């Protein structure tokens, strides 16, 4: 490490610098913040300094009690005391990491001919070199096996760029290995070469071993793959696995090695050989590699403020602008857009721009200032000293510095840019004096630059800057007055930069907030709606929900889908190639978020994990009931709020105490997935039992039931969870929250999958799912659910239940225009009911058969079936439960509807209206809104002749109900009737009638409602015919006729024939008109129908 005062290299254990005597900072054990030695508590997180987590178990193989590489940075990466990572968590977890295996080629043969004592010295020296390379990039040395080293990047502490760090460490190892081999070749008489394998993927971490010999390590296929890649690599080669390649190809060059067979692996692995770093790395994030780029969204106000601040600076009021936000929120993009904006504004033409981006690996002393100078004058990191001296001298002369000034400041700037003191000019200068001379040189350079024009200085990722550069910047800010200067910094919210604030500058602090839902939608539209139809709506909503308004997260989730082939471009449209895609968290985001969690104090991290087990939203009361240490809940939750990991919300939890939610959905998911499966199972059971104690076992709340169902379904007692979920689904269904009900039933089915002894719950869940899938237009899914339920009921000899499912399947067949299959299912159901006493189900079946008879034109039989259904429903005796009463009401309402429309066709209009109104009354009182919609639909037709003033109102009322319950089928029916009423009784045929008919057609086609599609086609055809558009009318009539012939329903066939006949008559095509009139007459004769009745009452259901 380096002394924080003079930069002299000192041992990591030194408390004082042996050169300048400066006392060294102490790194906080919780958050790694470098604290002055006299501090007793960390000013950033409040942790007492010098205290070690009681749960920390040092590895037995380390003399200093600390794991190798857990918290060290080499001297070239940091100038302060090593930033300690949090103490290793003794609890095991799951996490994605990058594993590196390094080994000497030919070690076994070498061991046979070299003395063991010499080999010991060789191995120790090799391990020192390899360990230094690993620790230089914040890696963790897991173990040494023979001559091999196993290193981890991402455990025990994650970083945003662990795969890149592992490759940089591997290249460093090869360089060190070359020098090591040259030193030892003279002693052992043969060359020494390393070969390295690297793999990225999931592992389980924790303590491994027996009793007191346990130490921190990892296990998983990722480790095995890295070892196999290392064995395959030749001398001096680095082989990487497919995921490592995918995550680092933007910054490193590779040679493809093709598919390779790795010993012990079931399938081939795509292997790449690392060549080196790219001279010009590409962007690691976002969708630009796929040619997708969007304008800046949702940052217009911030962009305007930046421009205003620069205006003030150019007018002589120095500005300090702090741009804060979480990783991925868009700080760098805003800076980029700001620079592009001012480049187009003439008044800023004279502004000089200097820019530096701090490294996440940390900076050497004055490293941030060095980057500013290097970028300003084009000095690369590998620039020869002589050329760099010429470039600096030329730059200084251009700023107006005289020869003496140049000679005075040049040694200081050589030190700043990383060349040290090659001339020896500073060798006798004390450290503190050297620091002052560097500050003086920087001030001199700044004054000459400002004398030539305004200066905009940008420092990105200031939280990674070295402390000496921060002091130098503050030194400059204190000496600026009426200068045309603006310092723009970007940083994470937790980083404090008050040391840069000065009374001589105006401070502007801007916090970038997450994008709103509308802004997120606009961002995706910019990416995917240029020249194509955009992302599917369900995927779009899923992505935005998970990303929580973070632009980078939005792009990375979509990029992950493209990378794995789940989202593919098909011509001008992006399509989902894998259903359910979008649930995986991209590794780039996992590492970013896991890094935040790893740097939490141990107690806070544990509380965050327990909160995540409850869910994205949790309440403090429940958390206190299940926490491992309830006494720490309040303080730890406060800490999480301060760290902006959770935020307080209105409580909706079972305990009615303070409510909280994770600020980012993905952060919650990462914390949850970080836990071992066994711990999840145990915690879910603990949470479920705690909720039962709080709400009792007879709760009626959908939220409580769903919460209980979720937690118990993740335990060994999945059936219990499924029962709660089914109960929640039934209550949601009765409240007509059908989407929620479908989701709850799906969760119940997932919980029951593979569980034994759960057939009753499984059958119920499948039947309920079928009930809700059909009205939502998912007929195929409904058939599948019903078929599975029928098998389960039949196997359990539940005769009435099997008959009920057969009846429902019959109705689905009729809706699809399959009359014969519908009748077959009804007959099979009737045969089953003959063997059991089930009057309500028998009433349902009688009503369905009456409904079918009506649709086929047998109106007398329809009225008879409906009357028998009513009698069966009334035959219940004694006390019955609420569900039986509900089913009796449903059968009654439907039977009255069927009887009413049958009587209407038989000419008994008054009686028909009375029965359908009675149906609506029964359905409304019992909250049977689907049945009510059918009554509204039929009344809309019947009122056209009996009470025209009410026809339009009843259609609108019914449509509103259908929309509220999400029944698309009835929406189409009521829209068709609304179109008829609008065009018949109002002047709004064009504005309301036509759109209603078109929308009904759209719904019927989408749902494949062959039993109804003809109706809106006929209605729209009649409208076009009345408005003198015969070609459109003919097209619609012909399509309607084609569909009507599938079902053979007379009330649909007749208006098709009649419409085509009158259309041809209008066109003076008498032969065709007569042909269609004859066909229409035949339909009426064959079914005993009155043509006038079909004209007046065309479409009844």
From TrEMBL:
Pfam family membership, one: TPR_12
Keywords: ATP-binding, Nucleotide-binding
The keyword Nucleotide-binding appears for this protein: yes
Example of a GO cellular component annotation carried by this entry: cytoplasm
Molecular-function GO term, any one: adenylate cyclase activity
One of the GO biological process terms: cyclic nucleotide biosynthetic process
The keyword ATP-binding is annotated on this UniProt entry: yes
SMART domains found in the cross-reference section: CYCc (SM00044), TPR (SM00028)
Domain Guanylate cyclase: 98-230
UniProt cross-references to InterPro entries, sorted A to Z: A/G_cyclase, AAA_16, DZR, Nucleotide_cyclase, P-loop_NTPase, TPR-like_helical_dom_sf, TPR_rpt
SUPFAM superfamilies assigned: Nucleotide cyclase, P-loop containing nucleoside triphosphate hydrolases, TPR-like
PANTHER family reported in the protein's UniProt record: GUANYLATE CYCLASE DOMAIN-CONTAINING PROTEIN, TESTICULAR SOLUBLE ADENYLYL CYCLASE
Protein's recorded name: Tetratricopeptide repeat protein
Organism: Ferirhizobium litorale
């Amino acid at each position: 490490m380096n002394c924080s005062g003079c930069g002299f290299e000192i041992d990591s254990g030194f408390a004082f610098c042996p050169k300048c005597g400066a006392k060294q900072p102490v790194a906080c054990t919780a958050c790694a913040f470098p604290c002055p030695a006299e501090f007793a508590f960390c000013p950033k997180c409040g942790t007492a300094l010098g205290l070690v987590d009681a749960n920390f178990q040092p590895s037995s193989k380390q003399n200093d009690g600390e794991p190798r590489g857990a918290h060290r940075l080499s001297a070239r990466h940091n100038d302060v005391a090593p930033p300690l990572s949090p103490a290793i968590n003794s609890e095991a977890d799951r996490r994605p990491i990058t594993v590196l295996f390094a080994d000497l080629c030919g070690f076994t043969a070498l061991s046979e001919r070299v003395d063991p004592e010499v080999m010991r010295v060789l191995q120790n020296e090799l391990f020192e070199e390899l360990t230094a390379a690993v620790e230089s990039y914040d890696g963790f040395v897991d173990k040494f096996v023979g001559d091999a080293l196993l290193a981890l990047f991402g455990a025990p502490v994650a970083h945003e760029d662990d795969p890149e760090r592992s490759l940089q460490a591997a290249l460093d190892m090869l360089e060190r290995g070359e020098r090591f081999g040259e030193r030892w070749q003279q002693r052992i008489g043969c060359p020494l070469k390393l070969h390295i394998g690297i793999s990225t993927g999931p592992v389980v971490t924790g303590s491994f071993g027996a009793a007191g010999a346990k130490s921190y390590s990892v296990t998983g296929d990722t480790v095995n793959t890295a070892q196999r890649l290392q064995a395959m690599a030749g001398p001096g080669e680095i082989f990487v696995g497919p995921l490592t390649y995918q995550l680092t190809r933007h910054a490193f060059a590779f040679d493809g090695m093709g598919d390779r067979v790795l010993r012990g692996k079931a399938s081939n692995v795509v292997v790449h050989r690392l060549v080196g770093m790219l001279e010009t790395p590409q962007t690691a994030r976002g969708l630009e590699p796929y040619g997708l780029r969007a304008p800046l969204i949702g940052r217009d106000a911030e962009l305007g403020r930046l421009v205003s601040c620069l205006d003030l600076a150019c007018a002589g009021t120095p500005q300090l602008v702090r741009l804060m936000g979480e990783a991925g929120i868009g700080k760098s993009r805003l800076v980029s857009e700001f620079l592009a904006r001012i480049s187009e504004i003439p008044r800023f033409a004279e502004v000089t721009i200097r820019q530096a981006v701090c490294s996440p690996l940390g900076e050497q002393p004055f490293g941030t200032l060095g980057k500013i100078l290097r970028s300003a004058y084009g000095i690369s990191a590998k620039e020869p000293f002589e050329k760099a001296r010429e470039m600096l001298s030329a730059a200084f002369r251009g700023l107006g510095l005289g020869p003496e000034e140049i000679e005075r400041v040049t040694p200081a700037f050589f030190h700043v840019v990383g060349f040290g003191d090659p001339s020896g000019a500073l060798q006798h200068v004390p450290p503190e004096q050297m620091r002052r001379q560097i500050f003086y040189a920087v001030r001199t350079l700044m004054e000459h630059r400002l004398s030539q024009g305004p200066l905009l200085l940008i420092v990105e990722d200031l939280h990674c800057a070295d402390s000496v550069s921060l002091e130098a910047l503050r030194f400059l800010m204190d000496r600026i007055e009426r200068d045309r200067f603006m310092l723009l910094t970007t940083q994470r919210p937790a980083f404090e930069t008050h040391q840069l604030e000065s009374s001589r500058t105006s401070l502007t602090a801007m916090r970038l907030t997450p994008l709103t839902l509308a802004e997120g939608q606009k961002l995706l539209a910019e990416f995917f709606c240029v020249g194509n139809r955009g992302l599917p709506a369900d995927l779009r909503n899923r992505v935005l929900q998970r990303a929580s308004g973070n632009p980078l997260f939005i792009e990375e989730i979509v990029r992950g889908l493209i990378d794995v082939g789940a989202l593919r471009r098909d011509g001008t449209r992006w399509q989902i190639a894998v259903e359910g895609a979008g649930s995986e968290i991209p590794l780039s985001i996992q590492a970013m978020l896991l890094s935040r969690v790893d740097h939490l104090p141990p107690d806070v991290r544990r509380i965050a994990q327990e909160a995540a087990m409850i869910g994205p939203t949790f309440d403090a009361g429940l958390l206190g009931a299940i926490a491992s240490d309830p006494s720490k809940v309040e303080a730890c939750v406060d800490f999480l709020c301060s760290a902006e990991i959770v935020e307080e919300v209105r409580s909706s939890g079972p305990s009615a105490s303070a409510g909280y939610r994770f600020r980012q959905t993905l952060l919650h998911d990462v914390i949850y997935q970080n836990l071992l499966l066994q711990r999840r199972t145990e915690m879910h059971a603990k949470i479920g039992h705690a909720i039962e104690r709080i709400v009792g076992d007879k709760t009626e709340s959908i939220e409580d039931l769903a919460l209980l169902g979720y937690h118990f379904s993740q335990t060994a007692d999945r059936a219990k969870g499924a029962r709660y979920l089914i109960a929640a689904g039934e209550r949601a269904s009765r409240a007509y929250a059908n989407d929620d009900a479908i989701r709850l039933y799906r969760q119940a089915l997932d919980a029951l999958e593979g569980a034994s002894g759960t057939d009753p719950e499984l059958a119920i869940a499948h039947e309920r799912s079928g009930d809700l899938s059909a009205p939502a237009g998912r007929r195929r899914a409904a058939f599948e659910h019903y078929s599975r339920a029928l098998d389960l009921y039949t196997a359990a000899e539940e005769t009435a239940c099997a008959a009920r499912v057969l009846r429902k399947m019959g109705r689905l067949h009729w809706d699809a225009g399959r009359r014969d299959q519908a009748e077959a299912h009804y007959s099979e159901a009737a045969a089953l009911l003959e063997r059991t006493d089930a009057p309500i189900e028998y009433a349902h079946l009688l009503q369905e058969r009456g409904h079918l008879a009506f649709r086929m034109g047998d109106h007398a039989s329809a009225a008879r079936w409906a009357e028998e259904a009513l009698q069966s429903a009334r035959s219940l005796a004694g006390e019955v439960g609420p569900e039986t009463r509900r089913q009796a009401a449903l059968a009654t309402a439907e039977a009255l509807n069927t009887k009413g429309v049958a009587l209407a066709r038989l000419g008994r209009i008054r009686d028909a209206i009375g029965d359908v109104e009675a149906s609506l009354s029964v359905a409304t009182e019992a909250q049977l809104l689907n049945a009510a919609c059918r009554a509204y639909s039929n009344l809309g037709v019947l009122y056209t002749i009996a009470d025209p003033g009410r026809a339009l109102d009843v259609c609108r009322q019914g449509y509103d109900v259908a929309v509220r319950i999400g029944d698309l089928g009835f929406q189409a029916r009521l829209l068709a009737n609304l179109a008829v009423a609008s065009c018949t009784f109002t002047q709004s045929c064009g504005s309301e009638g036509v759109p209603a008919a078109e929308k009904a057609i759209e719904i019927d086609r989408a749902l494949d409602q062959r039993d109804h599609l003809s109706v809106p086609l006929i209605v729209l055809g009649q409208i076009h015919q009345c408005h003198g558009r015969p070609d459109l009318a003919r097209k619609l009539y012909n399509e309607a006729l084609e569909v009507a012939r599938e079902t053979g329903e007379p009330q649909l066939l007749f208006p098709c024939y009649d419409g085509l006949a009158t259309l041809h008559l209008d066109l003076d095509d008498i032969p065709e008109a007569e042909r269609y009139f004859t066909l229409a007459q035949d339909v009426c004769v064959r079914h005993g129908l009155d043509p006038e009745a079909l004209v007046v009452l065309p479409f009844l259901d």
